[in-house]
Amino acid sequence: MRIYKLVSTLVLALAFGAIAVATASAAETLWRWLPGSAKETFTGTIETIVITEAKEGTKGGSSVKCAKAEILLTDATLKVSSELLENEAKLALAVLHLTNCKSFGLASNSLGDAKEIVLMHLEIHNCLIKSGDPGLLIKILPVHIEAPATKLLVTLEGSFIGLIKEVAFNKYELNIKQKEGSQEIQKCEGGSADSLTSKIDAEPTRNAGIEAFDFLLEFDKTIDKNGEQLMEN
Description:
Order of helices and strands: HHEEEEEEEEEEEEEEEEE
Strand content: over 45%
Number of helices: 2
Shape: globular
Low-confidence stretches: 1-27, 228-233
Number of strands: 17
Mean pLDDT: 77
């Protein structure tokens, strides 16, 4: 059984309050998810995603690159791969399906999954980066990525922030950038700095950065067919 699918199934069953504690810093401002309503699901597509480890004395260490990523409405095992939770839809869960993944230049996968497939389980909430700039604070549940040919295991965890903007009705672009293992957007308004960390086998834990190209989100509107504004306090 895939351990992270099991973890996600358990997380989906938890009360909203427990998720809120795990996801957001107490000082950060929570915003209501709009245009979605509670129990709404959504999809996401990414053209390419790159995770880069920062190493002291270098311009970035090892990296994991996946040619495509998706957030699906449904999953054969989980049944729901994305969902806005209750309590005014301030938080969401999603499973990011990454394909054609390579690290160290070799085929890689999340532990227990198929060749070149990485599954990331995400906890997401809205935040304000600064006045007029809404964002998404995204937490990755710990994921173990292996390159079977090298027998190396990379552990990735932590959180990152993306700037979100509407590009068409019901479609939103998420801007996530990093440089040399450091995220372009460091924190949300009222919160502390958020960061990803990467650890290869027994090596020291280092900061890591994630960059997503052409990241688009779209709500399915099965609950809220007319749509609303992006966010409200």
